[in-house]
Each structure stands twice: as C-alpha cells, then as structure tokens.
Amino acid sequence: MSTYTATWLAGGASLVLTLALVPIMMLLARRLDMIDRPTHRKIHNEPVPFLGGVAILLGFAGGAGVFLLLSPTLHYVETKKALLVIGAATLAAVLGLADDKFLLRPRYKLAGQFLIAVAFVAFGYRFQALRLPGIQTVDLLLLGPPLTVLWILMIVNAVNFIDGVDGLAASVVLVICVIAGLLANCFNDTVVVAVVLAAGGALAAYLWFNWHPARIYMGDAGSLALGMLVATSLVSLGQDCSFGLGRRSSEPFYYQMALVTLVAAYPVLEILLTVARRLLRGKPIGSADRGHIHHRLIDQGWTPPYICFAAVFVSLLAGGAVIYYLVQSRGAAVWFLVASALTVGVGLHFCGVLDDFRSSVIKTTRPHFLLVNHFIAMQRIKLDMAESVADLHALLAQTCSELGVQCMSLTVATTDGQAGKHEFSWRREPQTGDSEQLAESGTAGSAGFSDRTELCPGTSAEWTFEPTAREEDIDVEYRVLMSEFMHRALGRAEQLYPKAGRSQLSAPVEAGPVSRPALLLWRSDDKGPRTSR
Fold this sequence. Notes:
Elements (H helix, E strand, L loop, with lengths): L2 H29 L3 E2 L11 E2 L2 H18 L6 H27 L3 H16 L7 E2 L7 E2 L4 H18 L6 H19 L3 H21 L8 H17 L20 H8 L1 H17 L11 H7 L4 H23 L3 H21 L8 H27 L3 H14 L2 E9 L7 E7 L6 H8 L8 E7 L2 E7 L7 H24 L5 H5 L27
Antiparallel strand pairs: 1-2, 3-4, 5-6, 5-8, 7-8
C-alpha cells in the first residue's frame, strides 16, 4: 500500500472512531460527574459533559496508528517524529483531563505544558533562524530552543482561549490542520500530512456533536491536546529529528516562524489581545474573564455559528496568504494578507475589543482590578491560616460582603460518622438607603446573579450577588474571583468541620451585621469614589 493511500485511510479511520467514541464519552462524563455547568462566563444554559477531548484524542491516535501500520516504508526518523507529535498531544490531554477533574491552578498547568514543550524541543525540533522581510537572516543558535518553547506555549494556550463558543475551537483548528497539511505536502512531509489528516478527521466527527447547540465539550483535555498537536506539527514541519539541543537539522523554508504563526492567526490574535488586556488592567495573566473576542461578539448579538464562520474566514485568509507565498504567487499573498488585516481591524473595532486599550478606560479600571485582586489574594492567605470553623465563617462573611454577595449557603458532607451535613448560611443585612438606591438604578425587585460550585457530591456552595443596574467587566471579575475563592473554601471546610466539636457545629453562627463593602473603587461612570458595589 502506498504512503499516500495510508494518509487518507488515517483520516477516515479517525473520523469513524471519533463518531463511535463521542456518544460513549458523553455517557461516561455524566457517570463521572465531569459536567460543565452554566456559570457567569458560560453561554450555555444546561449542564454539558466535557470528555469530548478524550474522544478526539483516541480517534486521532487510532487514525495515526493506522497510518504507521500501513506504511512499512517509513524511515525510522519519520516514525520517531510521528510518535513524538502523538506523545506530546497525549501528555497535554492528560494534563487537561486533570484540570477538568481537579481544577488545577494556572501555574501548575503552565508548568506541565512547559515540561512537555521542553521534552519535544530536546529532540531537535525548533526554530533555527529568524527571517523577516527586509532584515538579514539571524541564526538563533542557543536562542532557538527557548524561543520555540515559548512559541509552543503561546499556541497551546491560544487554542485553549478560543474554546468558549460551540464549535469555535474545533472549526478553527480544523482549518489550521487543512492549511498545515497543504504546507506539509509542499515539502513532502508525509508524517505531518498524515497527522493533520487524522486530527482533521477526528475534529470533523466531533463537530457533528459540538455544533450549536453543543451536546458535548472538549474541555481542557481537548483544547490543550489540539494546541500541542498544532504547535508541534508546525514546528517540526519539514524537519528531520536530530536529538540534542545543540544539533542542527535542515531549515524547511524561509520565514518559518512568521509563516507558521500566520497559519494560527486567529488563536494568536486572541492570546495577544488577552494577555495585553489583563496586564493593562492589573490582572494576573492566568485569571479568567469575559473579554475574549467571542464574548464581545455575543454581546453584539452574534450567534455561535456566525462567530465560527467569521473565525474560519479570518483563518482561511491568513492561511491563503501563506499558501500563495509558498507557490511563488507573491501578489496574491499580499492581497490575502491585506484582506485578513482589514477584516481583523474592522471586526475588532466594531465589536468593542479596541476600547479596552484606550488610555481613559485603562486609567479608570486598572485601580479597580488591582484592588479587588489584591484583596482576594489576602483572603486566600487567611483561608489557609484559618484554624477553626469560626475563623472560616468570619472569613466567608467578610469576602461575601466585599464582593457584593447578597446571600450565601455552604454545605459539607460529613466524613466523621455523624449523620446529616454541616451547613453554614449568610445573608447581608439591609442597610439604610438600599431601597432608594435600587429604585433609582431601576433594579428594585430584580434578582441578582446566582452561582454555585461543587467539590464533590454533598459538598457545595451557592451564592447570589446583589442586583446591579448594568453588568460591567468588574462585575464579571467579582464573579470569577468569588467562584475560585468558594471552591478553595469548600476544601478548607472539609478539613476544619470534622475537627470541630459538636457544640461548635450545632451552635447557631452569628455572622452579625456586616457593613457595606469598604473597598474604595471607581467605575467609568462615577464622579467620585464609591464602594465596590
């Protein structure tokens, strides 16, 4: 059997396998309680299982295995490249699966991604020279490995960032796989052609279930695996494996780093805007928010399918520029590049993304975000130092008060042989003038936003924020920080409650009247300082 036939069989096998595996993963996810529940940053209204990434990986691995089995003429170097790309994607999927189940801290996820990228680069796949139009070629030498690791981390997290709308990440990565396959075909890189075809088949099958309204999500297991697969495939494109950081392999084509970055234009654009926005606002880069491009488009009234079509259109324009450049059609490449730049510029302007970078907006919002993030960091330290149930209850009441929570309840399943559950509830006492303020803002009688988190069956927390006249970015920040804090508080409660005596647990908790939030923060429509709510 020819290698050409084996590559297409790999794509077909991965498509069939993924179609069969996705329904199984949907049932397994519900049984394991790996469910993506609606929260402040989600666009879905019903719980959705998220083991789709495992189905994608298994389908992809099966298709790639078919290629390796049916291509006996492959050189051992080519086989090693295929195994390295598959292995890196598998390790990234395991890391993402752990995050889906245990909600790993961002630093731990980044550390895992870093180790996988370093291991891949150690086999000699890296950027070796920096070439840009009008600039003399610069041999990267020892700068090549660290620069390649950083680029891989950027692509992996970029794919993770765009996984926020039904079908978006899968459709964009599918286009990237098509473009990467065409590039690999130009350089007779059979391994990369087979790998991206197998990935494309798995993604096409997964999209059948993930298109709006989605019946399954890929989770971090899928987004990290796909990001690692895309990154390693593009870095190794046209290169032979030469083990060792200091050894050199053949350079596949001119402007390699610039062109492969352009292939992943949409995810790269997303991560650059996200990192810049969070830094300017004084937020940790690893924090969550609702300022991504797809969130802005949803706020403008776009539906998930139209967002996917727009992202695919931008990716095709950028990828078309790369393809035309490689076939020596420079004029067409320039037109495609200009069209993609104009499309992105106009789109970012009208969906309001560029407003986040205005100096007036940064000046009024940065102190707000800095204060609330510093406050929650202090509360986390206090949470780790809490030595009794009373300390925990007081800390919960203070945090709820500062972040504008109206009421909160916490339930912890017993693990010490006692019957029933340990419960704690808190409610903000109405303050003088609250009714007048709500009436003036037009929110009198309206319900605030409710959210919940669950550590395990029987151990959960629910809370409701005070109603606001209109939702602002800082309100979303409160919700993100509150959700993360309450999840950690549940873990601490599981440790403290069994140690408490029966008298402490049975005695009523007197939270006492809590004053209005003391954080002096600003909003863009304020004339002066005000409290955080």
